[in-house]
Design brief:
By secondary structure, the chain is an alpha+beta fold. The protein has 2 domains: 2-136, Beta Polymerase, domain 2; 153-278, Up-down Bundle (Four Helix Bundle (Hemerythrin (Met), subunit A)), CATH 1.20.120.330. It is built from 9 helices and 6 strands; from the N terminus they run ααβαβαββββααααα. It has helices at 2-11, 17-32, 43-47, 67-81, 153-176, 179-200, 210-215, 234-257, 268-278; strands at residues 36-42, 56-62, 84-92, 102-109, 114-121, 133-136. Strands 3-4-5-2-1-6 form a 6-stranded mixed β-sheet. The longest helix is centred in the middle third of the chain and has 24 residues, at 153-176. It is elongated, with a radius of gyration of 22 Å.
Length: 282
C-alpha cells in the first residue's frame, strides 16, 4: 500500500508539489498514530482532475473507541502537516440519526494549499468511492468495486419540491421589490435544478449538482441554462426565474423516471409557480 501510494504521489504534476507534501505529511501522521486506520483523498485529486487551485480533500477513519481523542488531537495533526494560516473545525451531526457524527476541519496553509479534512469512525469494511485514492489502509478495510452515490426517489422528489419552493419565494420577493432576496432564491432553485439534471443524465453523485455535471466527461448542459442567470433587475430576474422553472418542468419526467415507475406526474406546485412568475408585474 505504501509503495502504491508513493507511486501515485510521484506521478502528480509539478504544479501539485505543495499538495503532494501535504498528503505525505498526512500519511506520516497516520503511520505514527495507531488510532488512524484509513487515509483517503478524493474529489478532484482522486479523479485526476486537480490543478494548483484544488483543495486536498482527505479523510482519516479512526477506531471507534479512539474517535473522541482523535477529534481533540486533530488540530495538532493539522498544524504538524504544515504552516497554518488559519483553521476552522466543527462537528457535523448527520440528518440521518443512524449515521455517526464526524469532524470537519478547514485549514489554509502558507504554501497556498487548502485542506478539507474529515475525521470519521472507521468501518470494518467499506467500498471505495469512485474518486478515492487510498493512501493508508493497513487493515484492508477499503475493499470492493468503487460505488457512486445514486439518487433515490425520495431525494429526486425533494429536490424538485425545494426548487419550486425557492422559485415561489423568488416570485414573492420580486413582487415586493426585494431584488437581492429574489436573486438569492433563484440561485438556490438553480442549485436544485443541477441535481435533477444530473439524475436525468444518469451522472454519478448527483447530490453534488453542478460539480457532478462538470466532472462528468462529455455531459451535456441543460439547453438555455444561461438564461437562468440575471442581474439585479426585476424584469431580467423574472425572465430568468421563468427559464429556470421551464427547464425544471422539462427535466422532471426524465429525472423521476430514472428512480420511479409510478406516480410520475408533474408536481401540481409547478404550474402554480409558473403562474406566480407570469403574474409578477415588471
Amino acid at each position: 500500500m505504501r509503495e502504491e501510494a508513493e507511486r501515485w504521489l510521484r506521478s502528480l504534476p509539478n504544479e501539485l508539489a505543495p499538495h503532494r507534501e501535504v498528503m505525505r505529511a498526512l500519511m506520516r501522521e497516520a503511520e505514527r498514530d495507531p488510532a488512524i486506520r484509513v487515509l483517503v483523498v478524493g474529489c478532484s485529486l482522486g479523479r485526476g482532475a486537480a490543478d494548483e487551485l484544488s483543495d486536498v480533500d482527505a479523510m482519516y477513519a479512526v477506531a471507534d473507541t479512539a474517535w473522541r481523542d482523535a477529534v481533540r488531537e486533530s488540530a495538532g495533526v493539522v498544524r504538524r502537516v504544515g504552516d497554518v494560516i488559519d483553521m476552522h473545525q466543527q462537528i457535523i451531526e448527520p440528518a440521518n440519526r443512524e449515521l455517526v457524527p464526524y469532524q470537519h476541519t478547514f485549514a489554509q496553509y502558507a504554501s497556498g494549499v487548502q485542506l478539507d479534512l474529515v475525521v470519521a469512525v472507521a468501518r470494518d469494511r467499506q467500498a471505495p468511492r469512485p474518486d478515492w485514492m487510498v493512501l493508508y489502509d493497513p487493515d484492508g478495510r477499503i475493499v470492493g468495486e468503487p460505488q457512486a452515490t445514486a439518487a433515490t426517489e425520495e431525494l429526486v422528489r425533494r429536490w424538485m419540491h425545494v426548487a419550486l419552493v425557492h422559485l415561489s419565494a423568488c416570485a414573492k420577493y420580486l413582487t415586493r421589490g426585494s431584488l437581492w432576496e429574489a436573486n438569492a432564491q433563484l440561485d438556490a432553485a438553480r442549485a436544485e435544478l443541477w441535481r435533477l439534471w444530473a439524475v436525468a443524465e444518469r451522472i454519478a453523485d448527483p447530490q453534488y449538482g453542478l460539480t457532478a455535471v462538470l466532472d462528468a466527461p462529455d455531459a451535456p448542459m441543460p439547453g438555455n441554462i444561461e438564461a437562468t442567470v440575471a442581474g439585479l433587475d426585476r424584469r431580467a430576474l423574472r425572465s430568468a426565474a421563468m427559464s429556470c422553472a421551464e427547464i425544471l418542468v422539462w427535466t422532471w419526467p426524465r429525472a423521476i423516471s430514472t428512480v420511479a415507475t409510478a406516480d410520475l406526474a408533474m408536481p401540481p406546485l409547478a404550474e402554480w409557480v409558473l403562474k406566480q412568475l407570469r403574474d409578477v408585474a415588471t
